[in-house]
Amino acid sequence: MTQSEELYPEPVIGFLEMLWGRGWLSPGGPDELARLLQGEDLRDKKVLDIGCGAGGIDCLLISEYGAARVTGIDVEASVLETARTRIQEAGISDRAELIQVEPGPLNFDDATFDVVFSKDSIVHIPDKHSLASEVFRVLKPGGVFVASDWLTSHDGEPSLEMKAYLAAEDLDFGMASPELYADALKQAGFVDVALSNRNAWYCQQAKRELDLLKTGLDDRQIQELGPDVVEHNIHTWSLMIKVLETGEHCPHHVRGRKP
After folding, report:
1. Measuring CA to CA, how many Å separate 224 from each of 7, 10, 79, 128?
2. pLDDT digits (tens, 9 = 90+) for 7-44
3. Are the C-beta atoms of residues 168 and 239 closer than 8 Å to each other?
4. Which side of the chain, N or C, has fewer Cβ within a 10 Å radius?
5. Domain spans of the chain?
């Protein structure tokens, strides 16, 4: 994921926060987070958040879900700067640590965390097997991996429609199938591996987002974002909805437990 130019500079962060909420760089807000964490107890737990983004989720993991401490990691300075601001605003700096990292092995000791969490960030990590092994290593026995991610329905050559969408996104996505994801977790040693397809939900959500981009922005918002940015994202969302409707683009919830 190393790149000379950041994928999420300030204008992109501003656009995504406008679309998804302050501190959020992925869709669904608190309601989708609640669905993702359903049945998990984070109270007094040490949590690692892979790809913490702009910090909105980490704020909730502490303030709403009772995590004792959250360590958020990301490769980009711009999103971490935003995340630090959000965490300071929430008054939880004493329970949150944000670290800029390089792609590769996780720089933590074995059995450090009770929970490893990620929301729609592992799509930027092509090697799911290596990532799963590292997550397994840093989890304590009995610890859980809870994530959502953007998957594709099959491995191998994408359809022409998917290629067009990925080219428009231009975000270095490394999407994998549910089968590959499950294999990576099982080979790493996880048990109780479960994947839940969120395609139907996000297909409808994406259509609402597209309507907002087309008709829901006022002149001030359009000028702040830039008319070219708005038009580009209308194009991107239109292409994304096509592959959501075919099911080739299929966001999933993912879970596994370290014995």
Report:
1. 19, 12, 19, 37
2. 777 767 778 888 888 888 889 999 999 999 999 999 99
3. yes
4. C
5. 10-155+172-199+251-257
pTM over 0.85: yes
Q: Looking at residue 170, what is its pLDDT?
A: 86
Contact between 67 and 61 under an 8 Å Cβ cutoff? The reply is yes
Buried b (16+ CB within 10 A) or exposed e, 198-217: bbeebbebbeebbeebeeeb
Q: Running DSSP on this structure, what letter comes out for residue 158?
A: P
Residue 79 near residue 54 (C-beta atoms within 8 A): yes
**Cβ neighbour number for residue 60 with a 10 Å cutoff:** 20
Strands 46-50 and 113-119: parallel
Residue 170: name the closest of 7, 52, 34 by CA: 7
- Confidence class of residue 5 from pLDDT cuts 50, 70 and 90? low
Q: Is the pLDDT of residue 140 over 60?
A: yes
- Measure CA 221 to chain center: 25
* CATH superfamily ID and name for 10-155+172-199+251-257: Vaccinia Virus protein VP39 (3.40.50.150)
CB-based contact 45:117 (threshold 8 Å): no
